[in-house]
Amino acid sequence: MGVDIISYVFSFVVYVLLQGLVLNHVNFLGEFNPYLYVLFILHLPTGCNRTMVQIVAFLLGLSIDFFSGTIGVNAGATLLIGFLKPHMDKIFSPREDNKMIVPGFRSFGMNTFIQYASILVLVHHIALFALSAFTFEELPYVLLKSLISALFTLLLIFIIEYYRSNRRIDD
Question: Which of 19, 23, 52 is closest to 37 using CA atoms?
């Protein structure tokens, strides 16, 4: 258990630094960024305590806000998917006991994980850009930006998952 905690703390730091120092500066068409840090929340085991998931999600979002110069926008969006994740785990988990499965291509199956990740990433991005705009006047732009950034993020997530699933099979 201690090794798992150390591994998750290391992953947390890597995702925050990767997002804050690299991915926040990657702009597709000058407007759209990948938000790969949500993969950390997606990879939390399915049997995790709900309160712990929400605390970790909030701290992750707050850390990203620190690097992004935003005040609570990422924290709010990440907290939302932290709240939804246990419910989505119950819906998409391949086993009924739903205990300590790390979501991914191997554990959920490729199609199921794609649906699972797509829903949570899209919800995150809509919340992120809606909180950022904080007006209904820009709703079409918010939805467009959410969709394109979500596609960009999902592409990176699926590439990483493909690599992870093939690497583990070969080991």
Answer: 19
